[in-house]
Design goal:
Two copies of one chain form a homodimer. Chain A has 104 residues and is α+β, with helices and mostly antiparallel strands. Chain A has helices spanning 4-11, 16-24, 32-38, 43-56, 74-87; strands spanning 30-31, 59-64, 67-72. The structure holds a DNA duplex (30 and 30 nucleotides).
Chain lengths: 104, 104
DNA sequence: TATATACATTTACACTTGTCAATATATAAA
DNA sequence: TTTATATATTGACAAGTGTAAATGTATATA
């Protein structure tokens, strides 16, 4: 079974601060120093969380001068949702009215 | 901020064995002893994972004699997907063609 | 009652993870 | 070059987590 990579992606969101970062980036790109002001964590801790999010593919980064700009990755988001959908769904396709299933 | 409960739900899937259990239950109800045969873990470990999944709401349990029958919870699945969608999405609603966004 | 089976709980341990202080690196400005 | 700013890395530590052995509990059967 090769769930290791999927577990890594799931774990990328298994933290309060990283959930907060995902919300903070929903309205567009932000640099690290701005995120740092919004979250009650130190700079090394933020740097650690951004690395986890970027490694998962959910967040993309762009360096400009001495600033790092972070933004949600459309491909990463799409891929993440599809991955989750593979595990969090029932077998309704074999039912009589699959389109009415809760998992849709 | 109150991400604690959401983090707990995310963490419910942040384990290889629990992902495997979600797949094993996709085709319908199974009792613990059957799951035990499919996974390479001991009985106490399975019991622990089932508790985590049930507490998250993703899995429902039903006791029948000395057997515990586990199944995916439609409500739990629906709720989980909605919760994830709240974090893993961009701000496309404010764009010109939100329906064409990757996050849909 | 005695025995067997299915499952839960307790306990202990190794491993992982989030955190911050200290330090390092890179870039821009004075 | 010197100084200030933004970020990354290292190291240490406490807390959390997955695991299995041992044990407990409930139910069914002989």
């Amino acid at each position: 079974m090769g769930f290791r990579e999927d577990v890594r992606k799931v774990k990328a969101l298994a933290d309060e601060n990283r959930l907060a970062i995902m919300l903070a980036l929903q309205h567009g790109e932000k640099c690290g120093c701005v995120l740092l002001e919004e979250l009650n964590i130190t700079q090394p801790t933020l740097s650690h969380h951004m690395k986890v999010l970027c490694d998962s593919g959910l967040v993309a980064s762009r360096k400009e001068g001495k600033w790092m700009h972070y933004s949600l990755s459309p491909e990463g988001i799409s891929s993440y949702r599809e991955m989750i959908s593979g595990y969090v769904r029932c077998d309704c396709e074999k039912e009589e009215t699959p389109s009415a299933c809760c998992c849709k």
